[in-house]
Recover the amino acids of this structure.
């Protein structure tokens, strides 16, 4: 084993009411790929923010040693100068700027105060080659898919002569192919001497790529496992992460869906006037009461657009076709009407359009159904609101000191649970879940699956959009495969396999 | 000792909210000392409130506009223009000669309705035509500026001699008949002050009891009592100062009323919650079933109505409509809102804060006037206070809660 490039010793970091890290020690050897795993809120992101100077020296206790030398980073610039680059859980590119502008943003190549664009474009091209991206560096970032954007982020990190690359859940919104590309890239970088730390909830990829795995739980280091000491199994990891064994993460189905159709969509087509192209073509599907249907497909195949166009069409697509809810033909003009009719939509982008980050947990949970908390004259009963929020806090096991905590202070997975709580409080008949377990740890996944099973048992019907095939296979009663805005096929739970789904999704 | 510790902790947690009150308090004390007590005299305080009135109502409306991430630059000249319209309808010589002048109880509601229509027009540009509010309201700024000139062109300043109308900006609530006790004291104001204290105490107790029935944490008893005593003392003090002069001015009554209504809407009702939600994240609000468009109409409509009210207050105070009425009102209102803790990023801000902000800004003007400080320095001091207030706000943003 190589000498350690990084040692973090006895790191403790507190927030008001939360001890995010207590006495954590963490060692990374030079040239390895080290994965950091743990439940939501275990402190993974916080540990990396301490390392990269987001929380400056003095904000935490303990020591950071880089190549044996004590470091006292005052800000991110300090850590970048020391050769550390971090790619955050949420991407930090400027969408309106070109790829080459983004790559050199903040450390522009200058020639006597004047930006040298020719050199910039040339070097950007070389960096893109390093990350195996074959795109024009002059393209705007907003026109790229998430997977490509992720690679641009890495190119940006490489432009700063990085020794230690930190990736916080880089694959959480990538499809299998993009994830595989990214992992391969990490292996290549390793060959070129770059050490990487990767946080991920996808245990399969963790096991596939890691040289070492450190498990955090409740702000403490539980253990560090090394791949060369014998193969690490998923079950062992889970046990360390959650402190108990979970053998079957998909709870057994105790119910049988009825044959009573609750939602039916016929000849549904949509055009996005902003993009000027058709996004949905002649979609037909139906959902029975007490059923979970899965919408599988590649990222960008139109599943989110399908959900939004049904759910009151907030993006103002030009929609044609018929929608029947409970046998009645409906034409929702606004999400408000869809909600009133008994629908809920948990969006895939919780920060972008799911949560109000500057408000607290209770305000987020109550937002879509304030009228239930309102007394005469539209006055919100704030005591009842706290009670409701506390109820979802305990039902969904949301980790937060109080429901008065600002949502942006919650860990990613717990934010997702707040989203779910908000949409369950609407008490819908039809629940649309768009990537419901993105960025969620195994324990919480199991909880969410259990809740889903319980909800359908009580008569709710669920549409689940998911890019994780095992999840689609494990949870759905029926699966529709969406490809390029069309329904490419329908499979029952019994006949579906990963191969069949991928075959339909890519043809 | 635990008492002081808890008190300190509560103060620390709420420093952001209390900061403004403390600032206002400090400014008042400084001016009281530097002016040898003139500043705190009943007469000056009443003047101060009346001067704040027309900016304060604008600041309230602006608070809502900024909360939903917009801005309205047109409100100053809109106020001036609608003040002129009101004056013309009541007192323009030609209109009077033609026998077409309208009585004050029709003019006021009419002006308010015109204000709402003007606000809805801006909202139409913003919500329907998707024009940035900065641009839409800048267009309004130019248009209303021109409109004032057009309507006052022939007459110049329009003198208003309607006593009822002029009382709004200059008059006082009449006292109850003299009953021989407390001579020289405005007894109705005193009674209202006492009623206010009683209502405050009852509602605080009611709130506490409700919280306890839910088994929620409440303030420790001593701190709770301290809070009540403190608030009562402030209301009592203000009442005493006012009742020593001519009592409550009509302007104060109007501002108080508007503040209470808006504060109630913003802090207690579903409508208020929706407005904050839109400011916090419009996309999430839309998906949560809140019509962003509709609320843009509501907020700008209310802004227009308050602009009309501001115009009425100002015209009434000057007892006339002038060609320059409304100049820079919009910037004063925006400054008051920012001093009062509204966040430019949207979603954050309190109506009461903006009123305090408006009071801070007028106190500065009034105090420096009394001290004989030149207008040029006054601008600089106010600029510095605006910057300092926002710096304080940003610096304390992360420590609260
Ligand atoms: N700025 C903050 N203020 C208060 N509490 C915070 C803040 N940031 C993080 N926390 C808390 O610290 C704990 C650790 O959070 P962290 O984001 O590190 O978790 P994580 O392991 O990255 O989880 P996830 O897998 O969900 O992303 C959580 O309980 C979180 O609520
Ligand atoms: Mg995290």
């Amino acid at each position: 084993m190589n000498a350690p490039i990084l040692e973090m010793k006895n790191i403790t970091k507190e927030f008001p009411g939360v001890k995010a890290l207590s006495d954590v020690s963490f060692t990374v050897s030079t040239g390895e790929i080290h994965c950091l795993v743990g439940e939501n809120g275990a402190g993974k992101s916080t540990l990396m923010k301490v390392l990269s100077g987001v929380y400056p020296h003095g904000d935490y206790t303990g020591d950071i040693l880089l190549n044996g030398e004590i470091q006292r980073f005052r800000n991110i610039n300090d850590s970048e100068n020391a050769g550390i680059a971090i790619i955050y859980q949420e991407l930090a590119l400027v969408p309106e700027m070109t790829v080459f502008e983004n790559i050199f943003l903040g450390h522009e190549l200058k020639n006597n105060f004047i930006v040298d664009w020719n050199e910039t474009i040339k070097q950007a091209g070389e960096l893109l080659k390093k990350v195996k991206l074959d795109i024009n560096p002059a393209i705007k970032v907003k026109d790229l898919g998430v997977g490509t954007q992720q690679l641009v982020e890495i190119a940006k990190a490489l432009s700063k002569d990085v020794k230690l690359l930190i990736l916080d859940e880089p694959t959480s919104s990538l499809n299998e192919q993009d994830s595989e590309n990214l992992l391969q890239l990490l292996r290549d970088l390793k060959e070129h001497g770059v050490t990487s730390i990767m946080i991920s909830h996808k245990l399969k990829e963790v096991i596939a790529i890691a040289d070492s795995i450190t498990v955090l739980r409740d702000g403490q280091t539980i253990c560090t496992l090394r791949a060369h000491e014998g193969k690490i199994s998923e079950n062992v990891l889970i046990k360390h992460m959650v402190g108990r064994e979970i053998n079957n993460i998909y709870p057994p189905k105790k119910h049988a869906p009825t044959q009573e159709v609750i939602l039916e969509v016929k000849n549904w087509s949509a055009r996005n006037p902003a993009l000027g192209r058709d996004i949905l073509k002649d979609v037909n599907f139906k959902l029975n009461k007490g059923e979970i249907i899965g919408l599988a497909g590649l990222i960008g195949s139109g599943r989110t657009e399908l959900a939004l166009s049904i759910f009151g069409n907030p993006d103002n697509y030009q929609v044609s076709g018929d929608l029947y809810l409970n046998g009645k033909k409906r034409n929702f003009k606004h999400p408000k009407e869809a909600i009133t009719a008994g629908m809920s939509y948990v969006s895939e982008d919780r920060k972008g359009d799911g949560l109000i980050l500057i408000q607290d947990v209770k305000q987020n949970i109550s937002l879509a159904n304030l009228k239930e908390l309102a007394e005469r004259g539209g006055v919100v009963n704030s005591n009842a609101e706290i009670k409701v929020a506390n109820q979802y806090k305990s039902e969904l096991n949301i980790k937060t000191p109080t429901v008065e905590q600002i949502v942006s202070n919650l860990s990613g997975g717990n934010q997702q649970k707040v989203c779910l709580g908000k949409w369950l409080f609407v008490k819908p008949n039809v629940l649309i879940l768009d990537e419901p377990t993105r960025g969620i740890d195994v324990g919480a996944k199991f909880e969410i699956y259990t809740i889903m099973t319980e909800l359908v048992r009580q008569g709710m019907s669920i549409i689940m959009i998911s890019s994780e095939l095992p999840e689609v296979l494990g949870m759905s009663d029926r699966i529709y495969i969406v490809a390029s805005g069309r329904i490419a096929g329908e499979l029952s739970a019994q006949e579906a396999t990963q191969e069949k789904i991928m075959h339909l999704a890519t043809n | 000792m635990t008492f002081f510790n808890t008190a300190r902790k509560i103060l620390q947690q709420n420093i952001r909210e209390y900061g403004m009150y403390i600032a206002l308090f400090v400014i008042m004390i400084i001016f009281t000392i530097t002016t040898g007590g003139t500043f705190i005299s009943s007469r000056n305080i009443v003047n101060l409130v009346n001067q704040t009135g027309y900016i304060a109502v604008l600041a309230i409306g602006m608070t809502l506009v900024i909360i939903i991430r917009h801005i309205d630059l047109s409100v100053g000249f809109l106020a001036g223009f609608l003040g002129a319209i009101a004056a013309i309808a009541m007192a323009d010589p030609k209109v009077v000669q033609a026998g077409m002048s309208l009585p004050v109880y029709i003019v006021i509601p009419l002006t308010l309705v015109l204000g709402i229509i003007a606000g809805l027009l801006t909202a139409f540009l913003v919500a329907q035509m998707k024009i940035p509010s900065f641009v839409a309201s800048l267009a309004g700024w130019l248009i209303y500026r021109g409109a004032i000139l057009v309507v006052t062109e022939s007459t110049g300043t329009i003198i208003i001699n309607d006593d009822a109308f002029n009382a709004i900006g200059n008059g006082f609530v009449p006292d109850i008949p003299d009953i021989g006790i407390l001579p020289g004291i405005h007894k109705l104001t005193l009674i209202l002050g006492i009623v206010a204290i009683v209502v405050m105490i009852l509602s605080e107790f009611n709130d506490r009891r409700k919280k306890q029935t839910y088994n929620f944490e409440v303030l420790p008893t001593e701190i709770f009592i301290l809070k009540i005593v403190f608030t009562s003392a402030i209301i009592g003090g203000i009442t005493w100062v006012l009742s020593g002069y001519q009592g409550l001015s009509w302007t104060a009554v109007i501002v108080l009323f508007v503040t209470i209504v808006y504060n109630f809407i913003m802090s207690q009702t579903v409508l208020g919650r929706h407005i904050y939600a839109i400011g916090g994240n419009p996309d999430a609000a839309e998906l949560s079933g809140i019509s962003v468009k509709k609320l843009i109409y509501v907020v700008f409509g209310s802004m227009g109505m308050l602009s009309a009210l501001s115009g009425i207050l100002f015209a009434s105070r000057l007892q006339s409509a002038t060609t320059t009425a409304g100049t820079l009102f919009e910037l004063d209102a925006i400054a008051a809102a920012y001093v009062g803790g509204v966040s430019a990023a949207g979603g954050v801000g309190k109506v009461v804060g903006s009123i305090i902000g408006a009071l801070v800004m007028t106190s500065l003007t009034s105090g420096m006037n009394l001290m004989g400080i030149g207008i040029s320095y006054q601008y600089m001091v106010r600029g510095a206070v605006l910057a300092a207030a926002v710096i304080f706000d940003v610096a304390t943003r992360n420590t609260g809660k």
Q: What stands out?
A: Residues 176-191 of chain A form the longest helix (16 residues). Chain A has a mean pLDDT of 90.
